[in-house]
Amino acid sequence: MTYPxxxxxxxxxxxxxxxxxxxxxxxxxxxxxxxxxxxxNTWILAEPDSDLAVVVDPGPLxxxxxxxxxxxxxxxxxxxxxxxLTHGHADHSGGAARFAELTGTHVRALDPALRLGGEGLGVGxxxxxxxxxxxxxxxxxxxADSLCFHLPxxxxxxxxxxxxxxGTTIVAHPDGRLGDYLDSLRRLRALTxxxxxxxxxxxxxxxxxDARGAVEFYLAHRAKRLAQVETAVENGHRTxxxxxxxxxxxxxxxxxxxAELSVRAQLDYLEEHGLI
Length: 276
Ligand SMILES: [Zn+2]
Description:
Blueprint: E1 18-19, E2 24-28, E3 41-45, E4 52-56, H1 63-75, E5 79-84, H2 90-93, H3 96-103, E6 107-108, E7 126-127, E8 134-138, E9 147-151, E10 156-160, H4 178-194, E11 199-202, H5 211-234, H6 240-247, H7 256-272
Parallel strand pairs: 4-5, 5-6, 10-11
Antiparallel strand pairs: 1-2, 2-3, 3-4, 7-8, 8-9, 9-10
C-alpha cells in the first residue's frame, strides 16, 4: 500500500497515455485517485500492419474516455475488433458494456458475469485478432478473476492490477487471496525468466522496463508486510483494524480501508499456514 519511488524501471510515455511499445498504446482514463494513481490505463493493442485492434480494460463508464479510445484507434487506422478485461473492478470494466455497444465488439473476461456476446477467456487461451498474439495468464490474488495478458512480440505483459506501475497493489479480501497472489507473482517472474518478458504494461501508473525487478520487488514487499503482520499479532494486535494501525502507520490514512482488505487476506494466510 505504499507508493515508493524506487521501484525498478523508469516511466515511459504510456504513463500519461500514448505509445508504449510497437503494439501497445495507452489511453489514460480521467479517474485519478489514491487507489487508481493517474487513472486507469486503457490499452489498445494491434499488429503494426493490421487494421484490427484489441482493447484491454475500457475503463470506467465515462463516455468521453470510451470515445477517445475509439478515436485513438481510428487515428492509427485501426478498428476495435475485440474487448478484453483483466478483472471485474469497475475502474477497469464499468465502461465495458457501453464500449461494446459503441464498437460492436464482444467482451471477453474470466468471470462469466462480465462477458458480453461471446466466449469467455480461459487460462492458456491465445488471442490472435488481426495477427496479434496474446496469451492469457492466470493471475488470481488481487481478485479471484484477475488475468494478465502476455504479448510475446513486444516482450511485454499487461498486468492489470496484479502489478502496478508504481507502489504496490491490494489483495482484495475475501475475493482476493494471498496464497493465490504469491503464486501469481511467481508465475509472472517465470515469464520474465523463461519468456524474456521485460516490459510491464500496468492497469495504473507508468510502464515499467524491468519486469523481473518489479515482480521481485512485489514478492519482497509482500514477504516484508507478512512478517510485519505476524509480529503485530504476536504483539497483541488482534483485529484487522489494530493490525493496520500498527503495520501501515507510514501510509496515508485514506488508504487504510484498502490496507485492511490486504491485512485480512494476510491474517487468513497466516492462520491457514499455522503461523498465528
Ligand atoms: Zn482492481
